[in-house]
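INFO batch 0412 | record 1 of 1 | parsing
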Amino acid sequence: MTWGRDNRGVMVRVLGGPGDPATRIENRIGEPAANPYLYFASQIYCGLDGMKRKLPLPSSSKTPYEEKADLLPRTLEEAIGRLKNCQVLREGLGSAFVDYYCRIKEAEIARFNLEVSEWEQREYFDLL
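INFO prediction complete | emitting tokens
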């Protein structure tokens, strides 16, 4: 998770600077299948929390592909675990919503796990 100035490799890209009326932030984190309302709401709640707690802004990234940075969850299961434990989003979106959303996504994982994938078919059954 990184940010940087005029760098397309970072998750949040800042273009322009102080006094420049064309200054803007480019949010590059999004995923086309994401629900845009939940996507933006979650970022707003987390951003407001960071401002409220006066969290320091980490240094901008100049070489995002080479620098060590915190990673986003790699699987849906890991993401659900983090969401379940996120007090900021529980307060912002409501615990009832977070629990309901996590249940829906856990059911999605369970349905996925019922299927035999092409990889499993090749790995375990294709002996020729």
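INFO post-check: The chain has a mean pLDDT of 92.
INFO record closed
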